[in-house]
Amino acid sequence: MAPSIDELSVSTIRGLSVDAVNAAQSGHPGAPLGLAPAAHAVWRKMRFNPSDPKWFNRDRFVLSNGHACALLYSLLVLYKYELTVEDLKQFRQLHSKTPGHPERLDTPGVEVTTGPLGQGISNAVGMAIAQKQFAATYNKPDFPISDSKVFCFLGDGCLMEGVSSEASSLAGHLQLDNLIAFWDDNRISIDGDTACAFTENVPERYKAYGWHILEVQDANTDIQAISDAVDEALKIKNKPVLIRLVTTIGYGSLAQGTHGVHGAPLKADDLKQLKRSWGFDENSNFYIPNEVSDYFAEKVESNKKEQQAWEKLFSEYKEKYPKEGAEVQRRLEGKFPEGWKDNIPSFTAKDKAIATRKLSEGVLDYLYGVIPELIGGSADLTGSNLTRPEASTDFQPPSTGLGNYSGRYIRYGVREHGMGAIMNGIDTFGAHYRTYGGTFLNFVSYAAGALRLSALSHQGVIWVATHDSIGLGEDGPTHQPIETLAHFRAIPNLSVWRPADGNEVSAAYIAAIEGTDHPSVLALTRQNLPQLEHSSIENALKGGYSIWPAEKPDLIIVSSGSEVSTSIDAAKLLAEKKVSVAVVSIVDFFTFDKQPLEYRLKLLPDGVPILSVEVLSTFGWSKYSHEQFGLNRFGASGKAADLFKFFEFTPEGIAKRAEKTIEFYKGKKVLSPLHSAFEELK
Amino acid sequence: MAPSIDELSVSTIRGLSVDAVNAAQSGHPGAPLGLAPAAHAVWRKMRFNPSDPKWFNRDRFVLSNGHACALLYSLLVLYKYELTVEDLKQFRQLHSKTPGHPERLDTPGVEVTTGPLGQGISNAVGMAIAQKQFAATYNKPDFPISDSKVFCFLGDGCLMEGVSSEASSLAGHLQLDNLIAFWDDNRISIDGDTACAFTENVPERYKAYGWHILEVQDANTDIQAISDAVDEALKIKNKPVLIRLVTTIGYGSLAQGTHGVHGAPLKADDLKQLKRSWGFDENSNFYIPNEVSDYFAEKVESNKKEQQAWEKLFSEYKEKYPKEGAEVQRRLEGKFPEGWKDNIPSFTAKDKAIATRKLSEGVLDYLYGVIPELIGGSADLTGSNLTRPEASTDFQPPSTGLGNYSGRYIRYGVREHGMGAIMNGIDTFGAHYRTYGGTFLNFVSYAAGALRLSALSHQGVIWVATHDSIGLGEDGPTHQPIETLAHFRAIPNLSVWRPADGNEVSAAYIAAIEGTDHPSVLALTRQNLPQLEHSSIENALKGGYSIWPAEKPDLIIVSSGSEVSTSIDAAKLLAEKKVSVAVVSIVDFFTFDKQPLEYRLKLLPDGVPILSVEVLSTFGWSKYSHEQFGLNRFGASGKAADLFKFFEFTPEGIAKRAEKTIEFYKGKKVLSPLHSAFEELK
């Protein structure tokens, strides 16, 4: 019997995938072979437009098991996204559009960067939250301008990672019925049979999370059953759906069902027998039957009509609801509301001392009112992070009685990593969402995996990271960050703001909100800080500036956050001894490094010794200073004041080190550490 | 009716806990009030000896909800560990023995440092693994020299964290029936009612993991029911047990059942009414009724007899099984097998080029044979990390047919964070376990929360972190570490070895295995590296040494790992131009920084410009160099050779930068970056 067009399509997808891996002699053929029928069936149901891959009301597809990317690329080629067979031939080669894991910046049609396991499914939860929130905010009777779904493939590895547990538990709580996940139950991971480490009952676990479970017993061949399952999933209300796909890794390969087929190219013989089994010429390569091309093209035509219908609907919407229509239009164009930052809080030295977390609360209260696309939350530290705008409603299923889906405040629970990955999903959904999440600075580290991906894939999420030093006091060293800022400052494309007062907090928020192509961490104090005489929003936006000028300084102190005011006090102490000390506030390394060298050298010039002062690890501060005063040990439990005193982060402690630095460098010629011998090569 | 002695004991525990929080005017009274009956009931069942808190066959108690530490400290005081009411009065004060979260180094009787949520329960899984492995290895018929249990309290926060999901899933798979966990189901977290973010069915989830579930419906008062549940749990075979304790946070307080009682001291009136309700004088403070003291002392006496019986048993064991007995004795004394490192692999420049991950495999094969307390595994990357000694057996429940409990190779599954926390548990169990876990370097970051605790609490676990740079090639930027080493090097008390060849790999292992008081990360290559002419184990153990000497060098290159040989090749290129370049291999910052300044200054002296070369973030390298060549951007997917060429990490690319550095510093007086103006204050 001749294969059906769907069977032929699946064979074509399988063929392109294994040929790509074979061309690269590197990659993962196993999952594409097993998942091709599911991918085909799901994409037949999806709304998308390859010539407008960012169409707002498209369905989103997330490949959480990103190593299976040959599968996704094959689909993108067949559907004629901006990706061709030539690109497949460059699979995993430098500068190709088909990198070894899906990268959202490299390949049109890739929604989100995946590969690190557990992230994609958690991103998908974020996308589903964003869609729900958008729909609840803007949809009107007869005007469902947003009703897209999120489809996500994931493997055993994703299910084992804790980040996916966090996000999946929250997805169940939030009753996200716009999310359909497909578990590739192939019983194989890199170490071999999942029997060796992963014998839990996944469907029961997801049921416990509040998900609806469906199963397809033969997802290797039964395209119709997969298709039916999707139809059924789309009908489920108030629950995300997990569809268990029983598959065989490397289906059809001589090595099927073994981990040998997971991450290594197939042998030449195996490729040949596979192609024969599909009815292809055994020597064919990247073969696309014409009827398959046509079949995929038809689907695209039908999808395009759906987009046209949506455009019409949206156009009518804008007429009938001009206010909302204009707002949606603005958001889809990626523009900010006019004048949004005009009235952001600013301060003078006469204003009272306030903790920067409290100042942050004031800014969030303000931003909430002027930026409707601002949506945030906290990992169960709302009262400590002060992240909940007074006027906000919780994002909750209405049936809970605790909020509704148009709410813009998310109760993440104690799930920092999940929160980070969900924020990436919200950010990637589109509609210009600006999203933030609160936790203690030290526990942003739990989310390192997600934060790194935000930076890599240019997602402008914002971490409101309070309790940023030993200044948090009694909770002790398990809660006191030491290495944390060094870690984050070393991540490319990440802003790490540590504001010293109210104006600097406002600047940090302006930069973070405007920084749609990079994540930002805002490190904020638990304790009060004074408003500084020379601070300004405008200067702070440069990432570093003179916060305490001095004529012909004997020493320059570079500092950040809570240590800036103490450093200024040290400068005042030393002034009494006729020692001239200037203080530079480095609010964000990333932004400061972008300033012209001339500007930076004016602040940190040749000929003056520079001392850095920050009550965290000194690691990295030598790029701005000759000497470093910091905390290269873990903190301690005690009253904040006692801790600062014990570690000598007092005006006297700083002054003592300042004097020793001046003494040491007396008569020595010092060069500014800003110089680079090969700047042009960087 | 007069309260029973158990009720009186519970009131006493509650009283001490709230008085401690009140004295500090800081801390968490809610959980201790709710959990005191459970803590009391469990400790009545436990074997332990306050005057020998490290007795090997004691039962272990882990407070995963570490913020409830006032509860634990109260028990330790009542059982007369080295902790008194005076210490309770110093709760959360600087340098006290009663810090804000339990710290294993500060307080006798605290098994493990907790506070960061989700860690303790995962540590408990590690302890249970260690106990099982020890028992299976050494117990003999009629000689159960190890039969201790692990009891762990945890709260909703711990259950929400992904790390606990990872560890709990593995615990179910491993059928750890020596682990009994108690869930404080008080329905309150910091954000308020758990209804706002945590509505999953926890018992069903744990059932899905393979745990046995028990419930106590009134754990506020029903001490007997808790006690019965423990008895029942102790009878369960082949499953860890989760006992759900339905409690009221802040039980008895006027604010009971609200998050107001979670993290703030009780009001004076509330304290008074509580004490009256217990039948105490309302003005009493840190009150311990004599009959309670006696009751606890009796338990200790009975426990001491158990220890004496065990000592007798062990003594007979040593007679009957002298070989095993001597080995156990040695391990309990914390000594290494004699001559264990005598035959560790060493290399000469004539040996062939090998990837350091492969060299690591050779060392592990060797160590497996000579150190019976070595137990390791991988987070589902065994074939890539090369972490499985050839002779090893998997640590598995015998019923799986995949191994047995005396196995020393753990299949962690894709659970890096869980693995990190489990390793801490294995390490803390005692019996001198030396434990390692493998994953890609980039994914050690998933476990940042656990790694930081290893460093803080001096746990000598070892990360075998392979694929340590863009040298991993095609998997691309999601898998290529950039900031990772900067992050780890900034963590106090952590060794980060990045060996350049075989001798340096052996040195790294010697240091890591001997480093029982600090964790170690071993960053290893996927790609082959040549054996270096001037490398030696002895020198590498200093953390940094001259790997390519040069007379009167014009420039010194400091480098690590895979870039050392390329830097030497650059030096050779430059020698042809009569430019003299020395190369220093910095194998581990932590170890190098401990060397005498004199030694370090000999390597990095005044008067010579220094260039660092490492294909990762340059962040932090300025502490050893004037100029830095690194990768301050994310990597790319492509063949490793193409990537190194594109980023110019070639002899030519390094030589170019070396020449520019020499040119820039010509005529300028350079100081060694090792100088410190206030070393004595550090």
UniProtKB/TrEMBL annotation, chains A, B:
Q: Does the keyword Metal-binding apply?
A: yes
Gene Ontology BP term (one): pentose-phosphate shunt
Give the reaction(s) catalysed: D-sedoheptulose 7-phosphate + D-glyceraldehyde 3-phosphate = aldehydo-D-ribose 5-phosphate + D-xylulose 5-phosphate
Report the family membership.
Answer: Belongs to the transketolase family.
Organism equals: Candida oxycetoniae
User: Which residue positions hold the site described Important for catalytic activity?
Assistant: H28, H262
* Parts forming coiled coils: none
Q: Does the keyword Signal apply?
A: no
By its UniProt entry, which PROSITE patterns does this protein fall under?
TRANSKETOLASE_1, TRANSKETOLASE_2
Function summary:
Catalyzes the transfer of a two-carbon ketol group from a ketose donor to an aldose acceptor, via a covalent intermediate with the cofactor thiamine pyrophosphate.
Subunit composition and interactions: Homodimer.
Citing just one GO molecular function, the answer is:
metal ion binding
Alphabetized Pfam families for the sequence = Transket_pyr, Transketolase_C_1, Transketolase_N
In this chain, Mg(2+) is annotated as bound at: D156, N186, I188
Q: Which residues form the Transketolase-like pyrimidine-binding domain?
A: 354-531
The molecule here is called Transketolase
Cofactor list: thiamine diphosphate; Mg(2+); Co(2+); Ca(2+)
Q: Where on this chain does substrate bind?
A: H28, H262, R357, S384, H467, D475, H479, R526
Question: SMART domains attached here?
Answer: Transket_pyr
Q: Which residues form the active site?
A: E416 (proton donor)
Kindly state what the record says about how the cofactor is bound: Binds 1 thiamine pyrophosphate per subunit. During the reaction, the substrate forms a covalent intermediate with the cofactor.
Gene Ontology cellular-component annotations: cytosol; nucleus
Which UniProt keyword terms apply here?
Answer: Calcium, Magnesium, Metal-binding, Thiamine pyrophosphate, Transferase
